[in-house]
């Protein structure tokens, strides 16, 4: 799912847990995290909103959450940020953080 300046507030307040991967096309480590996020979306997409936000095209949401380094993956529950992973990590790290908010 593509998360943008125009839809992120609605998604975060949807009542479901939300995972946002902040990335950019030119970011090497982002290309390692991207497939992990896609796998999690395929596995847990019915239980949580899982998507990607291109920082170059969505400056409002990027600024609202103080994204300075990418990739950054933020985890939301009940409309509030509850966890964050900055930089690349293994699938198990992301999956454990997601399971903690389900």
Describe this structure in words.
By secondary structure, the chain is α+β, with helices and mostly antiparallel strands. It is 38% helix and 25% strand. The chain has a 4-stranded mixed sheet, with helices on one face. A hairpin with a 2-residue loop joins strand 3 and strand 4. The chain has helices spanning 8-12, 28-44, 59-64, 91-101, and strands spanning 18-23, 49-54, 72-77, 80-86.
- Arithmetic mean of pLDDT: 97
Helix content: 25-40%
Classification by helices and strands: alpha+beta
H-E string? HEHEHEEH
Spans of 5+ residues with little confidence (pLDDT < 50)?
Answer: none
Oligomeric state of the chains present here: single chain
The proportion of residues in beta strands is 15-25%
- Can you list the strand order of the major beta sheet? 2-1-3-4
The 3D shape can be described as: globular
Radius of gyration: 12 Å
What's the helix count? 4
Straight-line distance between termini: 18 Å
Count the strands?
Answer: 4
Largest β sheet strand count, sense and barrel closure: 4 strands, mixed
